Amino acid sequence: LQKLIHLLQATDDPLIQEQALITLSNSAAFSVNQDIIRNLDGLFVIGGMLSDCIPKVKEKALNALSNLSMNIKNQEEIQVYITQVCRNVESAPLNSDLQLAGLRLLTNMSVTRDYHHKMIDSIPCFFHLLSEGNERMQIQVLKVLVNLSANPAMTRHLLKAQV
């Protein structure tokens, strides 16, 4: 895991980055690896890949963070990327894998109320995706909206959203 994280930092080759991110994402399926990746500053390195201009690299980074976000301690570090993830979802092509990967991460991050406030500005986008997206997109958006709607503090923001 340490070598993969170092490889991500050392290379600009998108194909190598994608493969390293896929391997880290698969490794994150095991809870012990989630802690190891966090302790090796892997969340910071993977989060840095969200600024990459290559959509496939961003998508793989989002998938890795999504798997890593199943851990409360990891969520505390990943939450700094929520605004950026929301922007990626809004700017990605409709129904793209990149958009779906971002929504999966937001679904995991919205399971608890801790980070709902960071998604408020994206609520109109979520409703747009619910209206215009394909079935896969609609299902994922509904998961985010259901999580947000479980928080009474979000009611006003959900109801006043410009749709």
UniProtKB/TrEMBL annotation:
Compartment annotation: Mitochondrion outer membrane
InterPro entries in the cross-refs: ARM-like, ARM-rpt_dom, ARM-type_fold, Armcx_regulator
Primary location class: mitochondrion
Residue span(s) of domain Armadillo repeat-containing: 1-163
Keyword set, alphabetical order: Membrane, Mitochondrion, Mitochondrion outer membrane, Transmembrane, Transmembrane helix
GO cellular component, one term: mitochondrial outer membrane
UniProt membrane topology term: Single-pass membrane protein
Keyword Metal-binding on entry: no
Entry keyword Electron transport: no
PANTHER family: ARMADILLO REPEAT CONTAINING 10, ARMADILLO REPEAT CONTAINING PROTEIN
Protein name in UniProt: ARM10 protein
Recorded name of the encoding gene: Armc10
